[in-house]
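Write out this protein's structure.
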Amino acid sequence: MTANVASDGEADIRPRLTYANVVATLALFIALGGASYAAINLPKNSVGSKQLKKNAVTGAKIKKNAVTGVKVKDHSLTGSDIDLDKLGTVPSAQTANGIPPTELVHLVGAPGEPAFENGSTNFGAEGPFTFSSVGFYKDHEGIVHLEGFARVDTGPGFVSVFTLPPGFRPAATGAVRAFEQLTDALTFIGGDGRVLAEEEGAAALEGIAFRAGS
């Protein structure tokens, strides 16, 4: 470094000020000042949403179990946000799974089903009307339902149309007596499962229901 000579003959030891020297000094000051500022702890609750860069907070930066249901907006999660394979069965669905499926109607006279007795048959068609076939089924509550219309061709008095199998019969002490307004006749179901029609003609079984005996 070259020293300047003062007017009195003594050397001037002050360095020469140049643009490069000034810029270098400022850069050093800013660097040191920034490091000093970073070392200072930020006050509590001083960083808000405006200070956070977009997408700066990632899943890895969130504490485990920090986000609870209270923090999630209601009705904001969709099926694509949930791993459905990891969901358990809700209690009501578990109860529903334990209910047996509704069985098909057992049609009297069909293969493997009770046969018609005493010459009785399905009523079939009468003029422009076709009547439903005779059948029965049991619902989830253990209630046996009869349906259909039978043609009873035997003489007057109670005639057995068909016999319900075990599991579909009323209790031995709780026989069912049903009055059919359409045919003005009685239908009687005994504890032995026999379905008895009162007289010759049509026996309407629609709407007859009873709890199966234990």
